[in-house]
């Protein structure tokens, strides 16, 4: 299992933190639907975080115990295929 560098300390880039907060407030309909299932440890008791910063990237959902990143791709990802490919390579 890969160990990610999850940002949980004061050394975080303030702009990235604000971006993650804004993304939590403005989730897509698909993200809201998945979050309704993942929140409050409803999936086998696993705790998920939403819009978590890992290795400088904001991922949609992250479960630390399982080392699992879940991304909900939608139309916005069509415009950022190269970025997504690089992010996937780094997070794999």
Keywords:
17% strand, 3 strands, alpha+beta, 3-stranded antiparallel β-sheet
Question: What does this protein look like?
Answer:
- The chain is of the alpha+beta class and 92 residues long.
- The protein has one domain.
- The chain is 36% helix and 17% strand.
- The chain is built from three helices and three strands.
- The protein has helices at residues 14-25, 29-38, 81-91, and strands at residues 49-54, 57-63, 68-70.
- A three-stranded antiparallel sheet has the order 1-2-3.
- Strand 1 (49-54) and strand 2 (57-63) form a beta hairpin.
- The chain is globular.
- The model has no long low-confidence stretch (mean pLDDT 85).
What's the overall geometry?
globular
- Computed over alpha carbons, the radius of gyration is 13 Å
Largest sheet: 3 strands, antiparallel
Spans of 5+ residues with little confidence (pLDDT < 50)? Answer: none
Order of helical and strand elements: HHEEEH
Largest sheet strand order: 1-2-3
Share of helix, binned: 25-40%
Rounded mean pLDDT is: 85
Question: How far from one another are the termini?
Answer: 10 Å
Number of domains: 1
What structural class results from the helix and strand content? alpha+beta
């Amino acid at each position: 299992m890969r160990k990610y560098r999850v940002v949980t300390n004061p050394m975080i880039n303030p702009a990235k933190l604000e971006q993650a907060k804004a993304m939590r407030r403005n989730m897509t309909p698909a993200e809201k639907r998945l979050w309704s299932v993942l929140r409050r440890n409803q999936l086998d008791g696993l705790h998920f975080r939403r819009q978590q910063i890992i290795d400088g990237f904001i991922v949609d959902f992250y479960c630390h115990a399982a080392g699992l990143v879940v991304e909900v791709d939608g139309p916005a990802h069509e415009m950022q295929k190269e970025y997504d490919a690089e992010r996937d390579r780094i997070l794999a």
